[in-house]
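Hello,

Our lab assistant flagged a job as stuck in the queue for most of the afternoon. It eventually completed. Since we weren't sure the result was trustworthy after the delay, we are filing this so someone can double-check. Below is the sequence as submitted and the structure that was eventually returned. Let us know if re-running is recommended.
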Amino acid sequence: MIRKVLLIFAMLMLVVQLFRPGRNISTSASPNAIEANYKVPKEIGVLLRRSCYDCHSNNTIYPWYSNIQPFSWWLQSHVNDGKEELNFDQFNSYNIKKKKHKLDEIVEVIEKDEMPLSSYTLVHRKAVLSAPDKDKIIAWAKGLNNAIN
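-- returned structure --
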């Protein structure tokens, strides 16, 4: 009986490998990207790409396990949720009130150590933000918020 259950489970796992979610990969730069419309110092851009862009842009660098179901569904769900909350590649399409709110949220989630997610930094150790990194992003977000009219 156990063999039969394991065989059925293995067959189901093989079948689900055929059903893959779409990938979050854009082939061109977005004209609405934050970097295309606002001053983003090089160092801040590097930090954002390293720690934020996999879930908050139109380009995700996928890890090896993203090719295995059901992990890819879970991962793509996180990416979709992240982009819905904040998409740096669509930032300029937001109205001024929303832009300012998103910048306030960046400050808040970094100050509270809510971002990057611990489930992300567990696997992506380079995405961990040091205290000076956090201070730089916070200062940049506050400065940009003040500059947006």
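-- support follow-up --
The delay was a queue issue, not a problem with the job. The result is valid. The radius of gyration is 19 Å. The chain has a mean pLDDT of 89.
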